[in-house]
Write a structure and sequence with these properties.
- There is one protein chain.
- With 222 residues, this protein is an alpha/beta fold.
- It has one domain: 3-Layer(aba) Sandwich (Rossmann fold), CATH 3.40.50.1240.
- Helices cover 34% and strands 19% of the residues.
- The chain has seven helices and six strands, in the order βααβαβαααβαββ.
- Strands 3-2-4-1-5-6 form a six-stranded mixed beta sheet, with helices on both faces.
- Helix 3 links the parallel strand 2 and strand 3.
- The longest helix has 18 residues.
- The N and C termini lie far apart (41 Å).
- The mean pLDDT is 93.
Length: 222
């Protein structure tokens, strides 16, 4: 019996003010820049011939604005959720990216020495959310979306950290291949099919895997 897969277009928001200033946003609620709005329009143009049955977005402003632009001329209500928010960086939110990387370097180097199983038990410092926590909430959300929309096509607008960790979790990339800035463009998207359990990547745009080195596994600095 053939399964009615849900097709999900998972999109990263356009450039926000924090991206342009080189600061960590996390849950900081900053709007798109003019460049970010243009990037969102660009995604909308690429997906103009896709019929969406539903549109979902992170409840943070930069994602909602991106979803609104892509949804232009589509008679759909954007449904928002906290489950697909970016990682929270705790006390590091609002810091320049370079200062954050310096302040947390020792932690990430130690984490990179651990196995995947050992990583799951690590408590992240300074109020930062763990990769395991991000994936618990994001994959729960995406599975619920797939189950609710069998045979349909939906748009989901989220964040770089969500997308990178998700692609690693489902086996599309190794940890380190999607490490930080430069691997997921603002406005990148991934086309996925799901039966509510498994996820299959069918198409990517703006996703750039890079060679793994011992010091490139920090994927938390989107």
């Amino acid at each position: 019996m053939q399964t009615d897969y849900c097709t999900i277009y998972l999109v990263r928001h356009g450039e926000a003010e924090g991206n342009a200033k080189g600061i960590l946003m996390g849950h900081m609620d900053l709007p798109l820049t003019e460049k970010g709005k243009s990037q969102a329009w660009g995604v909308g143009e690429k997906l103009k011939d896709v019929h969406f049955d539903a549109i979902y977005s992170s409840d943070l402003m930069r994602a909602k604005q991106t979803a609104e632009i892509i949804a232009k001329e589509r008679d759909l209500i954007i449904q928002t959720s906290k489950l697909i928010r970016e990682r929270t960086y705790g006390i590091h939110e609002g810091k320049p990216r370079e200062k954050y990387l310096k302040d947390t370097q020792a932690f990430w180097e130690k984490l990179n020495e651990l196995s995947e199983e050992e990583r799951l038990k690590v408590e992240y410092p300074d109020g930062m959310e763990s990769n395991a926590s991000i994936m618990s909430r994001a994959i729960t959300f995406l599975r619920e979306v797939a189950v609710a929309n069998p045979g349909k096509t939906v748009l989901v607008v989220a964040h770089g950290g969500i997308m990178a960790n998700f692609l690693i979790e489902i086996g599309f990339a190794e940890r380190g291949e999607l490490a930080g800035p430069g691997t997921l463009d603002n406005g990148a998207f991934v086309k996925i099919e799901s039966d509510g359990i498994d996820f299959m990547v069918k198409e990517t745009s703006g996703v750039h895997k890079k060679p793994i080195t011992p010091k490139t596994e920090n994927i938390s600095s989107y």
